[in-house]
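User: Can you write out an input/output pair for a complex, sequences first and structure second?

Assistant: Here is one pair. Inputs:
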Amino acid sequence: MRKFMRKRSILFISIITVFSINSCIKETYDMNKFSKKVQLSPTLAISAVKGDILFSDMVKPNDTIVFDQNKLVKFIFKKDSIVDLKVSDFLKAPLLQKTASIGPDSFDLDIADILSHISGDFQILNPTIKFNYTNSFRDSIKIILDASGRRKNNTVDLNLPPFTLTRANPPAQQVVTDSYIINKSNSNLPILISLPPEVIRFSGSATLSTTLENFLLGVGRLVGSLEIEVPMELRVNNLQFTDTVDNFLKDESSNNDNPVAPEDFRFLRIIISAENGFPLGASLKMSLYDSSTNSTKSTVDATGLLEPAPVDSNGKVTGVTKTSTTIEINKEFFSSVNKADMIIFRFTLTSTGNGSQDIKIYSDYRIKFNAALVVKPEINL
Amino acid sequence: MTVKIKYLLILIIALIVTDASAQNSQVLYFMNVPQKHLINPALRPSNSIYIGLPVLSGINLSNNNNFVNFSDVLIKGQSKDSIISFLHPDYNVDKFLDKIKDKNSMETEVGVQLLGVGFSVGRDSYVFLDINERIDGNIVLPGDLFKLALKGNESFVGSRIDLASLRADMKYYREFGAGFSRNFTDKLRIGVKGKLLFGIACASIDNKSLGINVNDDYSHTFDANLALNMSGPVDVYMDSDNNIDSIAFDNDRFDTSSGIVDFFSGKKNIGLGFDIGASYDLTDKIVVSAAITDLGFIRWKKDVTNLKANNKFEFSGLNILDVVNGTKTIDELGDEMLDSLKNAFIVTDTNAPFTTGLPFGITLGGSYNVTRNISVGLLSYSRIIGRQMREALTLSANLNVGNIVSTSLSYTASNHRYDNFGAGIAFRAGVAQFYLLSDRIPVSWNKIKDDNSTIVLPANWNTFNLRLGMNLVFGNKVKEKKDKPMILVE
């Protein structure tokens, strides 16, 4: 019996042994060829910036920008004392037909620098120039105002016909205060403003139709100022603002201590979701530019970044336009960063209907947006 | 890479990916060794007296994970013979993530029997005492955590990164056990074992809620309600903003022998444990058994630190309106956001005692004696760890020869693997009984070589369990003819 049991136990142990021996080598790993490269490349997404912004949050009213009672946005440019004529100013002229000179003078809008970056169609629909004056002359004064706007080599004349000022009516009214409105009905003002002009030059004359008696009495003064009012009623088509700046992305440091290098990113996406309540759409292009070779190294294109909101027949916004735009900055862009010394930004604005509809800008227009960053770094461990 | 670093890497990987499906070896149940009472206190060996020598009588090593294998982390590269890790850029991360489960667990157990004694009292009773040094560790890593680390949060947009299943528990404790089993009828045998537990060190995460909602607009809502409870020679330092500044190990207490003794005595962290089991002879050849083991807890009172976080925080980007308004600068907005983020995860540091439960096991087994020496068996072992349950089902063929040699071959379906072949052998030379058993014997191996050396490691080492030791056994001649579970009769 013991022998039998012993045989069985030997058989059992043999099975285990054979089982173990039969364990086979499945793979051979040559650790001399082990790659030490260890990298994580997660795609990280985060909401970076958000906003729900009214026009009035962005632009506060001041002397130049005003919101009227209907919240329409207007630009106001004022030039005081462009005319200050006394009797003595008329003495040089022939008797009974006394003419005094106005100007010449100029009105610099200080926007030449901005305008140098702007191209495209731009129409201001209802600008006005208000000539405000106080007049104590008893006789009528005819004003001839020659004004022109200049932008670079382009000049637009105002083409304003002569006009006559309201006169005082003594003794009941020693001084009269009044305004003369220059607008699209009596001049080329919309075209002039839509240049838009860097400088407005003006000159002219004031002609006093007087009697000898009145003139010899030596009374009368005319003081006048200009107020240019540009309500934001406009059409914009492919208005481009282009600016070239130094490449601020370029790593100028000579050492390699910076733990984050542009080439460590596979991509960076900026996802912009917007509910645009402005009747203006926007696109953006950013190009890496090498000025030494006059070549563009890489471009990020964000066409259709914002689409304009719809407007009614009066040019007022009736709703919002939702857009979601992804701006992808890829590895090729990152690898070109250090090959460029400049970055060219090209910002394009278009109004509703690609500039075919009148639009108005009100101070209660709003834009709601959220900008998320999606980044895929290559983290070498 | 030096040879040392290379093999250290391999060792670490092996430790991470090896697996022991259950605390107790499945094979142990079918072996004729005194330690089988660890599976069911009603089970007793055939000898009448055993003495376990300190340390030598039993060493149990287990390591466990349910989601990844050695061959998943070291892979053949595209170029011939090149080896890459799963974090290499050439490796398909999706392929790795396919293997990741919702709850990915790793368990480690080290058990050393410091002392063991068992002896028969009369014909029907058996008394056993033992002292065991035990380290139990388990970690559950949510699948979303791997996805988040490897793929990022973009893939979660519109959903929640659910980290509620994150759990970690590591305990080092000493177990004093006293047990007793007895035949209450000719067929029914019942055993119980009471345990007094002395906790030495513990770190445990109590996670009630942890997650991040990633909204469609890429904003994030973080919520956390969890606590890290620690008992051990660790000092946590907070800064003035109540953030964790540093965590330092308290070396000073180990400068004196009294300090060392005080630490390792664990006398202030007391717990209780309980095993109960029964076996029943259905027929002369069929025996069934059932047991619940390791039911218990430890109350940790000494050197306690509780770090709690219970916050909700929403990050939705910088609101540019304030910058547009001119009321704040972009830098100020950024600083505010960072402060909010910092404050959102402020933890409170307290010293309240806490309780940890032991992972407990439920065993259902049966054996059929084909002959007087050969039996086949079926064993189900369920291990409940917190809110998780692991199941292992083992088929075995066993041979016990004359109370001299006991062997077992087993097949275990466990831990999502169905290729676990195990074996055990115990043999007696005089009064010395040696045993060695494992639930999984690797059937395929990988050879790891470099210029200087070659080692072999299991290709699919998903389950690893090794128990070995030596007992002094007396009264090995069994005169009783009545069959009892796993007792050989001459």
